[in-house]
Amino acid sequence: MIFREIRPQAALQPYIRSFWWMDGEAPASVNDTILPSGYPEIVFNLSSAIWESVHDGKACTNPPIELIGQITQPTPVSTQGHVQMLGVRFHPHTAAFFLKTGMAPLNDGIHDLSDVLNCASGLHEALLHVHTLEKKISLIEQFLLEHLPSNKRQVYKMQLLDHVLQQMQQHESIDTIAYQSNISARYLQQLFMEHLGISPRMYLKIRRFKRSMRYLNQQPRSLTAVAYECGYFDQAHFIRDFKSFTGVTPSAYKPEQFPVNQLFH
């Protein structure tokens, strides 16, 4: 399988974390599970392979242009055939500025982007008719540039959330960050639900979970050590959160169980 991550042009870097390209090269059977990452995505399926995902125990056929909001629980996916996919991975808070919609209704689902942006089907069609990755990326970048937020209020909210997310990396409390940003904790909660689709507390839980996965993917450590390094209250708390996000306990976790997730850093 070929996998590449591509950095967007400078004008899009405040909004887009990366583009990614996946090419299976030959027909194959793929079974994986989407795990929480904190990053909403748009995924263009560019081959005849039909993906299915499982939601609430029911198998659903994924649309050709997938809009994936915040994932807060393990979501099984599968396909058979020659896989070719091109993805747009947003920063945690920026997809809403392009979609012009609240993010919370998109949580834990794989939606059809054409239902949110009518012009998306034309972009998908154009991507099918260009043959180099560079030209495909160029088409997507042009599409995104045409939908950049221009409203001053929107730009202010994005800059505020930029600041808040950077502060959260310093392990400041949510109340402290709100106070330092001259906003109320209630308004901060509203901003998160509107633009990320999840609460500040859930966002921190996902960040902590991702950090714990990185530790588990490296050299062997005790669960107590991983729990301590990642800021969990105790080992039991770590195990409970980890299982809710992956469906397995940390002791039963193996990176090869989630091959596609291992491609992203």
From TrEMBL:
| Gene3D superfamilies named in the record | Homeodomain-like
Which superkingdom does the taxonomy of this entry point to?
Bacteria
In alphabetical order, the GO MF annotations are: DNA-binding transcription factor activity; sequence-specific DNA binding
- Where the record annotates domain HTH araC/xylS-type, the positions are 158-256
What keyword terms does UniProt attach to this protein?
DNA-binding, Transcription, Transcription regulation
PROSITE patterns, from UniProt? HTH_ARAC_FAMILY_2 (PS01124)
Report the InterPro entries cross-referenced here: AraC_XylS_family_regulators (IPR050204), DUF6597 (IPR046532), Homeodomain-like_sf (IPR009057), HTH_AraC (IPR018060), Tscrpt_reg_AraC-type_HTH (IPR020449)
Please identify the protein, giving its name as recorded.
Answer: AraC family transcriptional regulator
- Organism of provenance: Chitinophaga agrisoli
